[in-house]
Hints:
The protein has 10 helices and 15 strands.
Amino acid sequence: MKDIVKLGVIGCGYWGPNLIRNLRALAECRLETICDVNPERLKHLKALYPEIRGELEWEQLVNSPDLDAVAIATPVRHHYEMAKASLTAGKHAFVEKPMASSVEQCEELVDLAREMGLVLMVGHTFLYSPVVRRLKEILNAGDIGSLRYIGARRLNLGLFQKDINVVWDLAPHDLSVILYLLDEMPLTVNCRGSAHVNPSIEDVASICLSFSNHRCATVQNSWLEPRKVREMTIVGTRRMMVYDDVEMLEKIRIYDARVDRPPHYDSFAEFQYSYHYGDVYIPRVEQEEPLKIEGQHFIDCIIRGETPLTCGRKGLEVVRILEACSESLRRGGAPISMKEKAREHPVFQSENRHGNKAMAVNVNA
């Protein structure tokens, strides 16, 4: 069992430097090498972290005998190839979201990680946020009653992508949170969108997911908004919660508000909805950078031989929904049955040699 994990990071563009900064600060992680095709990016990061080696060729990093693990923070089109090469070379792999470009690619990576006895983890960072963990606790405790629906909005001006649409770019964040909160896959998915800047890439989209017990969730994404919006509303039969990630401190607000139907009525004139308006409660949540918690979790899973909270199978579930969204877009927003869409695939308790179930994450550590 290792005490120190030697790691390399591929991709030093938009998100890679955040990974590098957090991984470098972990006691059980030794960041050995970083890689990028842009020499100027490497030069800049080498100036910040002179002890780290730089590589222009990602194959050199993956095949280095000095490394135990690889973190991949590149455009989505490279995820599968780089993750497969890393696992094949005997390296544990951390892959940013979405895990790959298709369900088939995700299935292959999950199988490969299991066969090789390696940790495969996907960067669904918000599941490591203390705020999202608190939402889950409140929901499980029944404080808001039975869940009715979740509405999510993730909007901003850009960043426009060249190889994926706004759904594949922004929706994975909220989809991963919704699956985490509901702990089940949707029954149906439908998606509508439009392209305004690049005629072949949707920059505005709306997703609707239906779940068991008449529950539903909506996800709205846009690259064409003047304001940055990161908001999720969770509506229960007793109370409602609003999670605003743009807020610095008061990220969760619980509203003592609801609407009830009269239990009995004999005529339409007697039918009256009952609206309840109460206080607003703001629970205190200790703040800690989710990316730091996520990085520590990856290292812990490698050292302890455990399965990550956001394992490859969880990444596969999100990509399965993204593929359904793409099919629905092509069919003008038609609902896609996830039961019919899903291919037969073994459900793994674990993706490592020890057969352990996914470990809990202590976000207050």
